[in-house]
UniProtKB/TrEMBL annotation:
<dbReference type="InterPro" id="IPR057279">
    <property type="entry name" value="MGAT4"/>
</dbReference>
<feature type="transmembrane region" description="Helical">
    <location>
        <begin position="28"/>
        <end position="45"/>
    </location>
</feature>
<protein>
    <recommendedName>
        <fullName>MGAT4 conserved region domain-containing protein</fullName>
    </recommendedName>
</protein>
<keyword id="KW-0472">Membrane</keyword>
<feature type="domain" description="MGAT4 conserved region">
    <location>
        <begin position="99"/>
        <end position="337"/>
    </location>
</feature>
<keyword id="KW-1133">Transmembrane helix</keyword>
<dbReference type="Pfam" id="PF04666">
    <property type="entry name" value="MGAT4_cons"/>
</dbReference>
<dbReference type="GO" id="GO:0008375">
    <property type="term" value="F:acetylglucosaminyltransferase activity"/>
</dbReference>
<dbReference type="GO" id="GO:0006487">
    <property type="term" value="P:protein N-linked glycosylation"/>
</dbReference>
<keyword id="KW-0812">Transmembrane</keyword>
<dbReference type="InterPro" id="IPR006759">
    <property type="entry name" value="Glyco_transf_54"/>
</dbReference>
Length: 361
């Protein structure tokens, strides 16, 4: 609809102007499309080249490093401990040695629950632990988390057997990106015999805690991109009802408080229920690798917390994780395993309906 009626002449001039403007705009648009197409294809070619180049450069750097390390070893100019350290990094964090069973999604999830698993003298709680986590989370919540299992036994065929059992029990969970299982060959571990005996620990205990340090470092290194937060438990743990929203609420409360934190503790037990930001996982993995033969991993966690400028531990109460087993993976602990007295499994005590009396809850 037009409100102003122009004279014929004016209208014609207007038309000519319009046409010219349209032609120019058309040309401009075509040029723009052409230029952006050229730019896009250049960028894509460049990116491919860059990725290739980067990979080649990385391989090259590793080769150089190995050469230099060899030469320095030969010349004995540098503390051999440093060379041992570099070799440890290269060996343990060798990506090509790691096998992960699971479906990688591009979308980062909210929480990863890390579970290292080794054989415990024939007692196996791992499936109960995984099932407990699945039972305490809704389908919606499960899309927000991943369960990351590391089969880390170093003797016999525990890893192989457990892997095929998990694969048949949890096919769907593995395919949907909810469950990951990791294995590594024994050759990535350093020699764990003849380590120094700090704290008067017996050699078997020193070996056990040093291997545990390597295990955890491997997990942290591999889990760093899966989610926003990472929480570590063990393979014999009971979880509390609705633990996922409870964790989220606690993190939000601490953040709203503007409290600076590196580690949040959702259980009082050793390394169980300790949560850290995934972006700190790589740093933590290297921290542990540097000191793996010095201290147990839960002590290293305390040091890491303070090194990250968190003055004191932050606990969530009541705690959300509890031990179920009574067999330590070291196999020499007395029967009475530590329990977390602040643990509450259910929000309300469950009423057993009369009709269901003989069904186990
Ligand atoms: C290692 O030492 C050899 C023999 O001295 C030398 O030829 C080579 O360049 C050195 N390599 C590196 C990476 O320093
Ligand atoms: C990593 O592991 C692969 C497979 O065993 C091996 O071929 C490669 O040399 C290793 N890389 C380094 C840097 O040790
Ligand atoms: C476990 O499985 C791997 C790969 O299939 C195989 O190479 C290895 O020999 C198996 N180990 C045992 C102890 O069965
Ligand atoms: C799940 O993810 C959604 C969307 O990212 C988020 O808003 C929600 O708070 C998450 N819930 C939990 C329990 O992680
Ligand atoms: C928030 O800060 C207050 C006051 O310092 C403290 O009492 C409370 O426990 C804090 N809450 C959390 C979740 O950190």
């Amino acid at each position: 609809m037009r409100y102003v009626r122009a004279s014929d002449c004016g209208a014609r001039r207007q038309n000519v102007c319009d046409m010219r403007a349209k032609q120019i705009l058309n040309k401009l648009a075509k040029m723009l499309i052409f230029v952006s197409l050229v730019c896009a294809s250049l960028l894509m070619v460049n990116r491919g080249l860059l990725l290739d180049e980067q990979r080649q450069q990385e391989d090259h750097v590793v080769k150089e490093l190995e050469n230099i390390v060899e030469n320095i070893t030969w010349e004995r100019r540098i503390d051999p401990a440093l060379i041992t350290q570099v070799k440890l990094y290269i060996n343990v964090l060798n990506e090509t040695e790691v096998t992960i069973y699971g479906q990688r999604n591009y979308k980062k999830r909210y929480l990863t629950i890390g579970i290292p698993s080794v054989s415990r003298g024939g007692k196996l709680y791992l499936y109960k632990t995984i099932q407990g986590i699945l039972d305490c989370t809704s389908k919606n919540e499960q899309r927000n988390m991943t369960i990351f299992v590391f089969l880390a036994d170093d003797k016999g065929d525990y890893n192989n057997k457990t892997l095929s059992e998990i694969q048949s029990r949890y096919t769907e969970e593995i395919q949907s990106g909810l469950l990951f299982v990791m294995t590594v060959p024994p050759r990535v571990y350093p020699d764990l015999s003849n380590l120094k005996q700090n704290f008067n620990d017996a050699p078997a205990r020193v070996r056990w805690r040093s291997k545990q340090n390597i295990d955890f470092a491997l997990m942290f290194h591999q889990a760093k991109d899966l989610s926003r937060y990472y929480i570590h438990i063990e393979d014999d743990v009971i979880v509390a009802e609705k633990f996922l929203p409870k964790i989220e609420r606690f993190i939000n409360a601490v953040d709203t408080n503007k409290t600076h934190w590196a580690v949040l503790r959702f259980s009082k037990l050793g390394f169980i229920g300790k949560l850290i930001k995934s972006r700190d996982l790589e740093k933590f993995a290297k921290f542990i690798l540097t000191l793996y033969d010095e201290q147990p991993v839960d002590w290293l966690l305390d040091h890491f917390e303070r090194s990250m400028a968190q003055p004191k531990p932050i606990y969530c109460a009541p705690s959300l994780f509890q031990h179920m087993g009574d067999v330590s993976s070291l196999g020499d602990k007395p029967k009475a395993v530590f329990r977390d007295k602040t643990f509450v499994q259910h929000d309300k005590p469950k009423k057993v309906k009369k009709a269901n009396k003989n069904r186990s809850v």
